[in-house]
Structure prediction request, 213 residues.
Amino acid sequence: MCKLTKPSGKKWPRFGNVLIEGYPYLECEIEYCCKNEMVVTVKDMLTLRTRLAYLNSAAALEAAPKVADLMGKSLGWSKAETKRQLDEALAALTEFGGPVPKKVGSKLSAATLTDIRALFDQFDLDKNGFIDYQEMKTMAKELGSPFETEEEAQKTFKKMDVDNNGRVYEERFVQWWHETGPDDKLRKELGNKFKFSAEKLGTGSESRGVAFG
Prediction:
């Protein structure tokens, strides 16, 4: 597969073009799988071969057109066949929940969220150790507290992201919970839904392991 890599145009890595940012898949892997692993559908490539659909369905949806194009070139598909393959894959990908389990809101309760770390972990969908803006919006919706406007969502995230780097780590998430109090809509609604309170959570590092209820 290394022999199939093409110049990236970057100082590093010099070879190998990433299929989609944030995931360790290269474009040349598509060609390799077609020629050496008998992959013949875009759906198969995104589900069973790379498993991107299971990791993040949104990322898989974004990568699908490129995968279809690369497979079409490797397997000699016509434009019609490439489109048919893409349509089939897109339809299949709608069945995947990506990093957010289906009906997650109905499964979460005060019994499953036992401390502030558990709440943070629910928001950290891709488990990379921090919450980004999209994860905050997604989980607010899944937990039954969607933002009414983009402006409202941005305002809340700004309160969390004091470093203004687009990343909210666990310690900062805990601080946000205690510093904003019930005046923050998301904080208030989550508190009401799961019966959280600043007193039960404790403060700072003391919040870890402190039970709700």
In short: Residues 104-207 form a domain with the Recoverin; domain 1 fold (CATH 1.10.238.10).
